[in-house]
Amino acid sequence: MDKRIVILGAGPTGLGAATRLHELGHRNWLLLEGASEPGGLASSVRDDNGFLWDMGGHVIFSHYKYFDDVITTFVPDWLHHRREAYVWMCDRFIPYPLQNNIHRLPPLERESCLQGLIDAQQQATPTPTPTKPATFQDWIDRNFGKGLARLFLNPYNFKVWAYRPSAMTADWVGERVAKVDVKRIVDNIASNRDDVAWGPNSQFSFPENGGTGAIWRAVYDHLPADNCRLSSEVVRIYADEKLVELRSGETLAYDALVATAPLDSTLRLLSGSRLAAMKSLADIPVHSSSHIVGLGLRGQPPAHVRGKCWLYFPEDDCPFYRATVFSHYSPNNVPQPGRQWSLMMEVSESPEKPLAGDVVQATVDGATNTRLVPDPAHVVSRWHTRLEYGYPTPFVGRTKFLEAVQPQLEELQIYSRGRFGGWKYEVSNQDHSLMQGVEAVDAILLGGEELTYHRPNVVNANKEDLNTCRRFRPRYIC
Q: Residue 411, Cβ neighbours under 10 Å: how many?
């Protein structure tokens, strides 16, 4: 219990690790964050015109009672929403998930999608040892058929990931994509019934004030100040000597390291001749970047947008793949509630999907094309940031890569965890990320199992016994 634990990064994973250490009464630890504020990809920014923005469309829904305890302990005021998500395609809004609501499509497209679903089901012959889909594209074709693949899943997933589904593994899918129930779909068509209840985030919460970043600022503020350092960028990891070097030149010793930076970046920081082979693996993983564009608008949302939470855009009439009606999450996300509203869009980028031109202007034009914004003159604020690391791509070969890298790092007492530290999109939500930090600490100090990182399917099944077995018991700082 006297191990010196150093945590790199004050995003949800690093803060989860620090929170667990403080809860356990372990004092020999240090949290280092290169930025001047905590939160990482879950931080928030207020622009020059007073509009608040997150780093993407984050919402709070949870698989863990421990996570719920942490955030409600430190953030008192929450707003709770019933998800209203839609897909914009064929010049109309269709409830999400699309496959359950193809009755809203034009007749020819509806027939194509239904026939594809039936064909896929008929071809899925049960066998004692079914073969795993080779790629995400293979998984799409097997489960959804040609119609939905052509019309929605292929173009939408390319817009999100900035890589083709054929270049991605299907290992990550789990609960992330609604499975197919053809009988239910046929019944929905016959009764012209909307079906919107699917998914773990059908109900979600959001802070009343301060955006998503307010959660992680509050968690950070309840940690011992002497154990936390902002604006402290690590530039090298001497794994043999168990030292980290800061940009300032200072070196700090550790017994165990919880690294929450992107895994490829952590590999590149390693120093030592015998680590050269491991460092060379840093070029294997691929990721997409994200452009977040915020539009602050005067007035109120048009009637067909009002009440909606987020919307998906598979077609090429706009550059963004998702738009969030951010003022709907909290009226305090705009400077003048009732007189202003806001939209937040996400645009992906990668070497396979480069962007050209002015992404902000293209977003405004796309918002007009898709009827989100009735008049560009209503836009009173424009905000834009580019996140180099947006999505950890589940590339073909990802599992083999992680199985080669992570055990070697753990032998060196380096636990690379989090959205990009672990490179598992299936456990990269805020609740997953915090718990990866918590469980890494338990593994280091108590020999506990890292259930979230190593057994995502078990965690995402959200069984009651897994959700209630660990509770948060805070220690308050005088």
A: 9
